[in-house]
# Entry
Amino acid sequence: MEYIHRFSHRINFARPSPIRTIVSKIATLSKTRKIISFAAGEPDPDILPRDLYASLLSDILKEEKLSANYSPTEGIPELRKAIAKFMREFENVNAEEDEILVTIGGSQAIDLLGRLFLDPGDYVIVENPSYVNTIVDWEFYGARLIGVNLEKDGLDLGELEMKVKEARNEARKVKLVYVIPTGNNPAGVSMSEEKRKHLLEIASRYDLLVVEDAAYNHLVYEGSYKPLSHYDREGRVIYVGSFSKIFGTGLRIGWIRASKDLVEVIKTIKGPSDMCAPVPLQYLVERLLSKGFYETIRKKAIENYRVKRDIMLKAIGEYLRDTDYTKPSSGMFVLIKLPSNIDSEVFSQRLLEEYSVAVIPAKSFYIGDSGRNVIRLNFTMVDADEIEDGIKKIGVCLRDMLGKK
Ligand SMILES: Cc1ncc(COP(=O)(O)O)c(C=O)c1O
# Structure
């Protein structure tokens, strides 16, 4: 059967997510040999309280008569209420229940926003680098991406304003500005408070809609940040939340916080595609929140990840001393810039095959060519006692490729 000529035009914009491609390759290789993986962007499974989840789920399925039925598309009322409260308490954002739409992870929230706002040929401004799955997803809707350089304290706002003006002058429609203000994936950079306020001033001046991806908002190892939405007085910020990075990526519960009217529209396009997010897991997250487990799980995660980050940075300082690398104060990743003559895809391939170490070539997180020699390393999911060995092997592979002893 020949399928290709039957595909929609949209499929021409599709490309596989490089993360999923590498992660499935690692899963296959892991069956036959030990891999040290810095590839994933996930919590450490050893600190997730699965026994607690099992016991809560067992209670839920016994006690909640409708827990194995559809829920409203926008989520069970208990969870919407709990998320609104969570946003008031943990995010300093004045959210109400009817401003919350429960989604299947932040991923679905991002996809729904792409479906709602983007026509082929529309422009989206993103931090450079930015989260590759959003790039891939929105390109699928035909969006064209404009990258704005990420500085140590967040987006280069001078460049942002220049690019917005340029787009205006050329009558290009900038539909969305997408930012990960805290713990950017892949760079681990967080935007300063001053820049958060300034970004909203620019958004107001040029009438821009901003999507705030808050996936890493509570994985902050030094300092603290209020979300962009906290400073928003004009309804310009659509907040995308996720419980993946604290409760576990497999629970697949995220949300959108937007105006009540916008939530109604998004609900309309969401319903026919999924009916609702998995209902037992909606109840589970609601119970975890209302019983105060968010903070206990998060605290444990922060302690664990901070230690691993420090081991990783120390090892990089020792074994990859000649490279440039980020020192993240938030998020899950370190970016390493390899010498300019090294292609990160070739490097990552060789590292995996010959040294059994997995990293993500970061090229596809960048708009343009600047990330060709950059790799992304995750420090949260790997075992602490494997980190030094893994970094040492990256150093050996690099010297090997550079022809040095
Ligand atoms: C920046 C960012 N946004 C959103 C997501 C999506 O996560 P989920 O769909 O598990 O909530 C991720 C996952 O890696 C991410 O890094």
About this structure: The domain at 63-294 is CATH 3.40.640.10 (Aspartate Aminotransferase; domain 2).
